Amino acid sequence: FQISKDEYLDILFEDLELPNLEKNQIAKITEWKTHRAGFQTAGIPSNISVIRSLQQSLARRTAMTAGKKRRLKELEDELTRIKNIEPAQQLEENRLKKEIEELRKKIENVPFIDTFDLRFKNYEKRPVPSSQAVMFC
Q1: How distant, in Å, are the alpha carbons of 40, 51, 98, 117, 123 from that of 37?
Q2: What positions belong to coiled-coil segments (predicted)?
Q3: Strand partners, 48
Q4: Rounded CA gap, 122 and 111, in Å?
Q5: In 2-132, which residue ranges form alpha helices assigned H by DSSP?
């Protein structure tokens, strides 16, 4: 009885093939991993994004006070122009000072950070397939 080297290796490694993974699809387990998914406006305090929240706050404050600051600058320039004129215009000067003070109060009343400025890190769960592979020796 004689056997070739290739036949011997085929017989020896016959049972060491990779398992048929289609059979394992039935017993497939899906694991879930969390991944970052941007930002959202609601969430728990531990997920707050301080940087994004402060950026939102700065943008809101800039938008809400830009026109008032521009008007304040115009009024201050007009007040200095009136003060430089020789004949004193006390009524006009008092009106400008009052209006300047009101604008400053309005600018100061804009809150530093508000609830709708808050941004929270958003996480979503993504499925990660895993197969139950067991090797018996």
Answers
A1: 9, 16, 50, 19, 5
A2: 65-106
A3: 120
A4: 26
A5: 5-12, 21-24, 50-84, 90-108
Q: Hey, what are 17's tokens?
A: 């093939």
H or E segment at 29?
Answer: strand 29-40
pLDDT digits (tens, 9 = 90+) for 56-74: 999 999 999 999 999 999 9
* 3-state class (DSSP) for residue 114: coil
What residue segments make up the domains of the chain, in order of their start?
50-118
- Give yes or no for a contact between 115 and 45, defined as CB atoms under 8 angstroms apart: no
Q: Tell me the per-residue pLDDT of 67-103, one tens digit each, with 9 for 90 and over.
A: 999 999 999 999 998 888 867 788 888 999 999 999 9
Which residues, in sequence order, are CB contacts of 66 under 8 Å at separation 6+?
Answer: none
Tokens of 83: 């003060």
> Residue 131: which pLDDT band, with cuts at 50, 70 and 90?
low
CB 127 within 8 A of CB 35: no
120 CB-near residues (< 8 Å, 6+ apart)? 39, 40, 41, 42, 43, 44, 47, 48, 49
